[in-house]
Amino acid sequence: MTHPTDIGRVLALPEPTSHLLTALHLAADGVPVLPLRKGKVPFGNCPACTQNACGGRPNMKTPGPCTCPRPCHGWAAATTDRHVIASPTWARAWRTAAAVAYHPGGAGVTVVDLDDPAAIQWARATLPATRTVPTTRGEHWIYRGTMPSSNAVRPGVDIKSLMQYARWLGPGNGATVALPDAVRALAVKEPPPADRAPQTLTVPLRGGEGECRHRTPAYLDRGIAMAEQRITEARSQVHTTVYRTFLAVLSAHGRCGCLTDDHVARLFAAAQAKGESPRHCTDAWTNARTALGM
Q1: Contacts of residue 236, Cβ cutoff 8 Å, sequence gap at least 6
Q2: DSSP string, 173-221
Q3: Could you tell me which residues come within 8 angstroms of residue 148 by beta carbon, excluding any fewer than 6 positions away?
Q4: CB-based contact 172:30 (threshold 8 Å)
């Protein structure tokens, strides 16, 4: 609960807003918050900070020495300091704010932003269930743990965690589970050719190192079908798409023994139909296994 003194101060301000009250409650729970203006974007730099004249937080990528009291630096302005949030300077922003945002990385979580029904279908077939929050067009899947943020890791899917903000759309439903390797794998880039592991595979290998966590055999089948679809629908960066798809499949299904050569042959066939050579398929598969320590 927000401290009563802070609530009293907020209510004494001219025209207190529900956004401000929401922000105070979130900050009391350790969630760093900031206001968003129309268009779901942060407030722009104030005159003193224009073009980073303040010397801090260049391009809003890394925290710097700026002590500007305004919510002026995108995600890096997010704070849990209730005195800052309820200050007269921030209060002016709250009165015109269109939404409350928060810094997922600062709250210790990662948001998988699913922007359309196809992305939601992919997540349900590929990722472990976790806390979900409905959005205007899709869902936010929230996992416990942080990672680098990355946009467009696959069609309709963004990852928001460190150095990024997400809209607060309510607490959602379900239990928040630990960030899975399948999500981390989406943001991993394939190593350059010079760094690739020696190519000794001619046939994809099977798993068998851990407990199976698939709910039904159809769970794996849906995951493979979604992976095939992702490769087939690639319009550019086919090799990168193939590698990331292999990485995601191995992260989700590669350690329990359920992933057979027939499944992997389907993935290779989809990749070769997009122009990948058998060697490139084997290279990508080997690199994905190496990246996951398999």
Answers
A1: none
A2: BS---BPPHHHHHHTPPPPPGGGPPP---SSPPP--SS----SSHHHHH
A3: 159, 161, 162, 163, 187
A4: no
| Cα distance between residue 227 and residue 245, in whole Å | 6
What percent of the chain has a predicted confidence (pLDDT) above 70? Answer: 81
Per-residue pLDDT tens digits for 165-181:
999 999 999 999 999 98
Amino acid at 5: T
Q: Give me 237's structure tokens.
A: 């960066």
Render the burial of 254-266: b for 16+ CB within 10 Å, e for the rest: bbbebbeeebbeb
Burial grade of 14 (CB within 10 A; 0-12, 13-18, 19 or more): exposed
- CB 155, CB 229: distance < 8 Å: no
Tokens 């990331």, residue? 244
Per residue in 194-217, pLDDT (tens digit) is 454 444 444 444 444 555 666 567
Tell me how far apart the alpha carbons of residues 139 and 113 are, in angstroms, rounded to a whole number: 6
Task: List beta partners, residue 288.
Answer: none
CA dihedral 44, 45, 47, 49 (to 10 degrees): -170
**Does an H or E element contain 250, and which?**
helix 238-253
- Region for residue 167 given its phi and psi (left: phi exceeds 0; alpha: psi -120 to 50; beta: otherwise): beta
pTM for this prediction: 0.69
